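pasting for ref
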Amino acid sequence: MLIIESMGQLAKLEHCFSKEVYCRLQDRLGTLHKTYCACGVPPLAQFSLADLGPIFFVQSYHEIEHRQFESIWTEHLQDAAFFVALHPTNNEYCGEYWIPHSILTEKQTRALYEEC
């Protein structure tokens, strides 16, 4: 599982993603920055999700097999589709689990929704 807490971490992992997925994750970090830092402080380059709930990029179903998610939605890109699932990290925030459709069997997809 890849853990993304900041733009710097995402930049170091750029080689792990297609250009489209990388750009979508950049956009998502920007959106979360705007949500959590309405006044723009700290700047996006210094913003971290470490205490809020990182983005987890799942590489195997076994990394999330018994995790209880609060909600799940689908993100469709041209070259990939993902389930995005929220899991509480503390009483206030949730981590986002980006789960590629391509790593799941039909049975695992059903199990993912049943655990939500």
